[in-house]
Amino acid sequence: MPAAQAFLDIAGAPEPKVRVKVLLPLPAGNGYDYAVPDGMIVGPGDFVVVPLGPRKVIGVAWGDEADGSVPDAKLKEVVGVLDAPPLSADVRDFVDWVAAYCVSPRGVVLRLVMRSGSALEKARGKSAFVPAESPPLELKLTEKRRAVLKAARPGRPMTAAQLAKRAGVTEAVVRGLAQAGALRVVELDPDPAFDPPDPDLPGRALSDDQAAAVRALSQKVRASGFSATLLDGVTGSGKTEVYLEAVAEALRADEGAQVLVLLPEIALTLPFLERIEARFGAPAAAWHSGMTSAARRRVWKRVADGGARLVVGARSALFLPYTNLKLIVVDEEHEAAYKQHDGVLYHARDMAVARGARQGFPVVLASATPSLETLANVEEGRYGRVELPSRFGPAELPDTQVVDMRASPPDKQRWLSPPIVERTTEVLRRGEQVMLYLNRRGYAPVVLCRKCGERMCAPDSDTWLVEHRYTNRLVCHHTGFSMPKPEACPHCGAHDSLSPCGPGVERVAEEAQERWPDARVEIFSSDTVQHAGAARSLLERMTAGEIDILVATQAAAKGHNFPGLTLVAAVDADLGLAGGDLRAAERTYQVLSQVSGRAGRAEKPGSVMLQSYQPEHPVIRALAGQDRDGFLAAELDGRRSLGFPPYGRLAALVLSGENEAKLMETAQTLVQAVPHADGVEVWGPAPAPLYRLRGTYRVRFLVKTARRVSVQNVLGAWLSRVKLPSSVRCTVDVDPYNFS
Ligand SMILES: Nc1ncnc2c1ncn2[C@@H]1O[C@H](COP(=O)(O)OP(=O)(O)OP(=O)(O)O)[C@@H](O)[C@H]1O
Ligand SMILES: [Zn+2]
């Protein structure tokens, strides 16, 4: 004991308390000091229960030094340590990093990690039954009881329901036998570990290109240490086949290795999970927003204790508590769905790469239409590139034809042009399938009054209402507001005057059914396919050829293999080109190539038709000429000359509030405090395109900096100079994707 301390002790002063910094999954604060009571041991990463005001909350003992700002006398004590594996240093480091990058409080990022709150509670398993080792000597045996005893198996516990079903009796009979002592009750593990994937099951025979790509990726995996590699392959080239071999290599290299495969959307997961199971002989741990809380709890727990080695999930799977993550694959890396749009506004692809870089493991990004960000990284040598230049097997890429809608317009109140009608008729006659693609849900995007011209809007918002015929309602796609379609115009009172303008998928399906009355027409959109089961059944029918015409939004654009699909027609290829969005052209190009990529994936050749009013637009021209690289190079040049991402950094700062005057005043205060520095430009405030949403007004600033400048530091300095009133909310979006 140091001398000074000894002296204090003699003087009777209390020993300083042992402190720990605890981070709570809450927006406020950066972590608080707590006292560790005598006899309790709290290690870094331990989940602890601590008091917060009148409540008790679960937090994590963070590695930081306690800050000592609260005097001992006021320090509250840790209540207890949970019996769960500690959060690894890697995950804690990742939380810190994401928070700093996204200019977000650390607690909010920790909340992403702790989203499956129930995983930390003691779960009770279901009761199950096995034959008793020493059954009672005097047991009244009925026919039914005999059946149950015959069905029961030692070493294979079954629930009352399972056992009753096998024996063809009611559960009461099973329980009666347990009561009588002829069956023994055991508790099932509520969260069983996942069967380990077997990387050594034989994969498919690979083409030469595929085998070369597998060798290149496997080498990165074996090299251990960070690398980022773009797996750049045309649609249908077998990228999935290839990266699954890289996954196998990572699993093989380390018995405890965990691998994460990120997918942009849940609609993709079901067929994908079957593919995984076929390859590795065991299902992967799936993670997405549509899961039950029990399924969530199981995955979370098993990821935390290493009992889940292969995770397939949506973007939030990045925040599971891995203990030994060794590889991340980001499939369809260009997808905008990787960007989170509330809470912490992170981009899962970028965070995946950051995680690999910080923790020293490889990351594979797969796409047929890579993002400009990734391409720039490849060009500058930071990322590697592995290519698959052609489709697998005999399949060829579809040929693409642009229909100039000025020359071949559709009939009035119709949306399909004569060339598309003609080709569809031929294709259907051959017994093949057609996809009509239009990225617009509902029946009509706009509803107008024919008498007074009133356009139906959502109350308190600057958004138009979309007509849905399925439900016969008018729906706001931004706020979810909906109302029955009124009989009379709310503005002028005219009856039956509200008419739909323009097509949505429901209207195109209506036209298709009228034109081809014998065809089986179905709609694939988030309205018709609201849960994974519905998506699965629709995809299965399409694959089996039980649908002739699929009218689809973007939900069906990616990842699917429909062997009978030979014609893909984009009803409005120009949609998405309008609007001043930085990424409008890039995104339109990507989604149309993905949709086109659904055609002709098996033996029969496919074709693509794009209806366009501006066939000379660079995006449409690039699609028609299949000149992806030319288009992307031109886009990159454009971004470079303007200093936009990936050649500069961008962040949005959105102010919102219900009090418009206060909001404007705050915006002006921010203007006064705008940082002036070399390489920093600030634009705004400008009203957000949806200025009024649910009664809330929104204005935005855009901050653009040179690449060498940290946009986070600029934002931090700026915001620290201004005190925001409590009625105004401020959201920071680093690398914004959504400009609405
Ligand atoms: N080596 C192989 N042996 C057998 N079938 C293969 C092989 N490679 C690919 N395929 C088949 O070709 C089709 C396309 O493969 P896959 O889905 O992996 O391509 P992809 O490049 O991921 O496509 P997309 O980018 O369009 O989603 C699938 O039906 C797949 O089963
Ligand atoms: Zn009217």
From TrEMBL:
Pfam families: DEAD, Helicase_C, PriA_3primeBD, PriA_C. It catalyses: ATP + H2O = ADP + phosphate + H(+); Couples ATP hydrolysis with the unwinding of duplex DNA by translocating in the 3'-5' direction. Binds 2 zinc ions per subunit. SUPFAM superfamilies: P-loop containing nucleoside triphosphate hydrolases. GO terms for molecular function: 3'-5' DNA helicase activity; ATP binding; DNA binding; hydrolase activity; zinc ion binding. Keywords: ATP-binding, DNA replication, DNA-binding, Helicase, Hydrolase, Isomerase, Metal-binding, Nucleotide-binding, Primosome, Zinc. The keyword Nucleotide-binding applies. Zn(2+) 1 binds at residues 449, 452, 489, 492. Belongs to the helicase family. PriA subfamily. This is Replication restart protein PriA. It comes from Parvularcula dongshanensis.
